[in-house]
Specification:
The structure holds 2 protein chains of 2 kinds. Chain A is mainly alpha-helical. Chain A has helices at 3-44, 48-63, 66-79, 86-110, 115-123, 128-142, 145-158, 174-184, 188-217. In chain A, α4 (86-110) crosses α6. In chain B, α4 (61-96) runs antiparallel to α9 and α9 runs antiparallel to α11 (237-272). The chains are: A mainly alpha, B mainly alpha.
């Protein structure tokens, strides 16, 4: 199959798949970020059980393989009478796993904050939550733009899990679409190359956005 | 000694009022987490997942021997993939630092490719396309090679970061002593870079190990596959998958801890110099 034949027959499907990958990536990244911040606050708060819970959460989702996580969500949860749609299972896995890494990045970002910043915040009479929200988190975010950029790429790679569950053709993302095409025609190397190029372009785009943001907000010490 | 982490710097020793508030919140948090745990256990109980028939075969030696055999295959695939990835990553790093622009450009393209493409896509490539090109690979290589390719770009970047972390003066000193470029790299720079790189290589192993769980795509009998067989023979899905997930988590946790420890050791010796 030539490239033009492939694109004329499946071009729309690829475009839909690219948009689905972007949508999943954006959605899961935002979710991972929100949960990552909450878990990080738990991990530094003065209440010991919450700290332990935060650490536990991070270790579990940082170390579980994506496939194992997805299989538990798809096959084990229904036996416990918790029903999620296939797409929801993929989203949950692609939110929770990156959220653990997000929290790890935030923790190491916090470790770069100068102790004087915290002493100053305390001297100004800020409460703990004010200090976290106005001094610690903003600085931690500014010094972790590059790891957070890799996290966005990592989230995109995690969304390839969607190819492991049955989805409607219009829900397919870039990995699933190659499978779909290969089961109907001999797409060969080209069918993979198209998806790979779209993935790599997206990764480069994310990297470029990250580098631009980093130049603007990086804290020069 | 651990470097003092942000956790210890965020607050001063609490006064009596704060201590009381922390105590109250600790009790509330304990109750809340306990309730969460209770909900989970109750859900298991209500759906009959706590019945002994779902769990008692974990007391049998044969169960663990079977899972152990699967784990061994998983580790074999992961280690092989890691060794290949380290070799390829080293070559890519040499390519990226090469003076020849063509070599440099090709290496950068390969690194970006391996870092931007999901392992699953590579696995499907080895599963669906490579056999059609007349190359017959066993299941072992069909899972090992894509995992290796996928990790090689990240490893190349880890090597490069390590090489860049060696002070510039080392290269200058070696060159001014009359060492050739090659000898400067292999006898002076690289041996020092290795120290910085080892922790990230260990955490790469975690990524490779996670990627091998897709072995079911190519029907390689890894830990996951053996778990599936156990599930069919004992008709017990939830317990087996949970135990397998815990096995993966514990192994990866151990590897990450090892990596952290070596990173701290490396940082200390670097600071002592």
């Amino acid at each position: 199959m030539s490239l033009s034949a492939l694109l004329s027959q499946y071009g729309d499907l690829y475009l839909q798949a690219l948009l689905n990958t972007w949508r999943l990536t954006a959605l899961c990244y935002v979710g991972a970020f929100a949960i990552g911040i909450v878990v990080t606050v738990l991990r530094v708060c003065p209440v010991k059980p919450l700290r332990v819970f935060g650490d536990f959460f991070v270790q579990v989702f940082r170390n579980i393989p994506g496939a194992a996580m997805l299989i538990i969500l798809v096959y084990a949860l229904p036996r416990l009478k918790i029903m999620l749609s296939y797409e929801m299972c993929v989203i949950v896995a692609s939110v929770l796993i990156p959220s653990a890494f997000c929290s790890e990045h935030l923790m190491s970002g916090m470790n770069t904050i100068h102790p004087g910043q915290i002493e100053a915040a305390r001297a100004l009479g800020l409460t703990f939550s004010q200090m976290i929200a106005r001094v610690v988190i903003p600085q931690a975010l500014r010094s972790t733009v590059l790891p957070m950029t890799s996290l966005a790429v990592g989230t995109m790679l995690t969304t390839a899990l969607a190819s492991q569950v049955p989805l409607r053709p219009n829900q397919l993302e870039l990995t699933g679409v190659v499978n779909y095409i290969n089961s109907r025609a001999v797409g060969g190397v080209l069918a993979f190359a198209v998806s790979a190029v779209l993935y790599v372009s997206t990764a480069l785009l994310i990297g470029w956005i990250g580098a631009t943001i980093d130049r603007k907000v990086r804290i020069l010490r | 000694m651990n470097a003092p982490s942000i956790r210890d710097r965020l607050y001063e020793p609490p006064g009596p009022k704060t201590r009381r508030r922390i105590a109250v919140f600790t009790v509330i948090a304990l109750l809340g987490l306990g309730f969460l745990l209770y909900l989970v256990v109750r859900q298991f109980e209500r759906q009959g997942q706590l019945q002994p028939r779902y769990w008692d075969f974990f007391l049998k030696w044969s169960t663990w021997r079977y899972l152990g055999a699967g784990l061994l295959s998983t580790l074999k695939a992961a280690l092989t993939a890691a060794v290949i990835a380290i070799g390829a990553g080293f070559l890519l790093m040499r390519g990226k630092l090469n003076k020849n622009p063509v070599v440099r450009w090709v290496s950068v393209a390969l690194i970006e490719f391996t870092r931007g493409v999901p392992t699953l896509l590579l696995i499907y490539f080895f599963f669906l396309v490579v056999p059609r090109m007349g190359v017959s690979l066993g299941a072992f290589w069909r899972i090992t090679l894509p995992c290796a390719i996928s990790a090689s770009g990240i490893i190349a970047e880890a090597f490069r970061a390590g090489v860049n972390a060696v002070p510039r003066g080392q290269t200058e000193a070696a060159l001014s002593l009359g060492l050739s470029n090659l000898r400067t790299f292999y006898q002076v720079v690289f041996p020092q870079a290795i120290r910085f790189v080892i922790p990230s290589l260990i955490s790469e192993l975690v990524i490779v190990l996670k990627d091998t769980t897709f072995a079911y795509v190519v029907s390689y009998a890894d830990l996951m596959q053996n778990a599936k067989v156990l599930i069919t023979s004992h008709d017990s899905l939830v317990s087996v998958y949970l135990v397998v997930a815990v096995i993966y988590i514990l192994i990866n946790y151990g590897l990450n801890k090892l990596s952290d420890r070596m990173a701290r050791g490396g940082a200390r010796t670097a600071a002592e110099r």
